[in-house]
Amino acid sequence: MASVATVDTLPKQMRRNAEQYGSRPAMREKDRGIWQTFTWREYYDQVRDLALGLAALGFKRGDRLSVIGDNRPRLYWAQMAAMSLGGISVPVYQDSIAKELAYVWNHAEVSVIIAEDQEQVDKVLTLKAELPAVRLVVYDDPRGMLTYRHEWLKSYGDVQELGRERARQQPQLFEHEISAGRPDEVAIICYTSGTTGSPKGAMLTHANAISVAETFMAEEDVRPTDEYLAYLPMAWAGDATYTLFASLAAGFTVSCPESPETVQRDLRELGPTTLLAPPRIWENMLTGVLVRAGDSSPLKRWIFERSRKVAERVEILRADGKPIPLSLRLRYALGNLFVYTPVRDQLGLRRTRWALTGGAPLGPDTFRFFRSIGVNLKQVYGATETTGLVSLQPDGEANPDSAGKPCRGIEVRIAEKGEVLVRGAGVFKGYFRNEEATREVVDRDGWYRTGDAGFIDPRGHLVIIDRAKDVGALSEGTPFAPQFIENKLKFSPYIREAVAFGNDRAFVTAMIAIDLTTVGTWAERRGLAYTSYADLSQKLEIRGLVRDEIAKCNATLPDATKIRRFLLLTKDLDADDAEITRTRKVRRRFVAEKYAPVIDAFYSGRDEVAMSTSITYEDGRQGTIQSRVHLEDVAGAPAHA
After folding, report:
1. So what's the pLDDT on residue 261?
2. Plot region of 32 (φ>0 → left; ψ -120 to 50 → alpha; else → beta)
3. Distance (Å, whole) CA 501 – CA 561
4. Residue boundaries of the structural domains of the chain
5. Which of 463, 459, 287, 322 is nearest to 390 (CA)?
6. Which residues of the chain are modeled with pLDDT < 70?
7. pLDDT of res. 396
8. Domain spanning 10-210+220-276: which superfamily?
9. Phi and psi for 398 in degrees, rounded to 5?
10. DSSP-assigned states of every residue in 211-244
11. Could you tell me the pTM of the whole model?
């Protein structure tokens, strides 16, 4: 393995890490309850063997390879193997339905699919006749695969054995392929969430990836000794940015949980030093803490509540730059000893130096809770087309109201209509096979139109309001930003999703999907029996609970934009039903069409509406739920016309 002076692609970074950090841990995987560790030398060897095996089977420069499954070292190595040969990685969401998978694999002209297990292979099998470009499928986990006999289907181990044989025949081939890589070549295609139509494939180059990783390392305290847990979907650009790009640049260790169901337990065991989590994860953590506190003895509950109030007072004073009285500091120190440290330990955050949240605003109460108990939680903002990074909150300037300061080397400006524009080395190469869409979002001067409406506040922080295309006005002219209202609603632990309506209307209304876990717990504590989500959501007591939560939200809104009517859905919004994207963004146009009778009922003054809700199963089959749903008025809101 020869040293190289120029490290300008991701595989060259991998090679450098194998040379410089050979015996240091690069990845861990929990398998059957035991953590397995792989060094940077082993990381390199695993990638080499798979890459040469793929080469022996015809994979060549420019080909596309897709991975599908949960976070697994072998799936990350497969992406690196493709890049090492000059190919392109195309990760997909593991919970996608057949129609979504077929679209991405055909649009990207994927020729090789690396599947985690039998479940994912079966998805490919059902679609194989519709995937003319796919000529090889490789599975990682052999359990359940004994009877599968197809010429185009091979095990991961068999492909690696072919690679070892090719290495014996051509010992310099892998090094030659890595050295031939150029920074302007596409490394990965990340498909966007597709809120307004079919997903688009954002092409991110090696130069994009390395630039953003280096920018992030200049802004944040990233160390080679860091431990990071990779549990977010590999198809999300944020996972690629932190799990692949940043780990290769800094050389820190990435660990993969045993399964999605064991993430919280594995998080406690691992105790990562850094963490990235979307708002829903933080909200679920806080809900879990509050539920456990509520179930404890009266004395422990009293201690927790008193300590929590002390911590929040300290955090508010600290955020405002005000001095903390000595008596309050002493009470905080006691709280840290008996409450805050044990809570961080239970959550797996005891060693966490910094933690990031992004993708949507995090509720101020949740944000302040974690910061108050000693978690250095901060907001980050980025987009797939900016390689996942635009702005980040500095340690001393974290607050729930902004997305942080634009990172060094990244330019941000606000267009005339309030749209956020970004320029920098992280801006993507373009959309795959869609030059027209690329021209629509990137101008001749390299400015990328994010589609988000926002502004720069007096401190130089970027504040995001909503998607620019969704910002409208009520019929009397008051500005209306539905996402702003929806996010306020979702700050409630009882509300999982919300869709607000009001553009060109006289007042604001909302459809609400309850959080089954927290609302179910609330109902059980009060002896309220229920049989299903639909049954629970339509109970009079639950409607009253949500009405109170909406009233709390309304207290923070101007009179004109207060929510006056609402409805509780009989099912959660679902990506399989095209109501939201895989990253849980509302597909407004589709929702407005699907729930048109509900919107009409809201504004015609009716108290009940018949709903026919279609649901989509994983194999693409559809079913229908028929129901009658109550529409509710919100006490305290101005009367609707």
Report:
1. 87
2. left
3. 10
4. 10-210+220-276, 277-349, 471-633
5. 463
6. 1-5, 194-197, 614-621, 636-641
7. 86
8. ANL, N-terminal domain (3.40.50.12780)
9. -75, 130
10. HHHHHHHHHS---TT-EEE--S-TTSHHHIIIII
11. 0.88
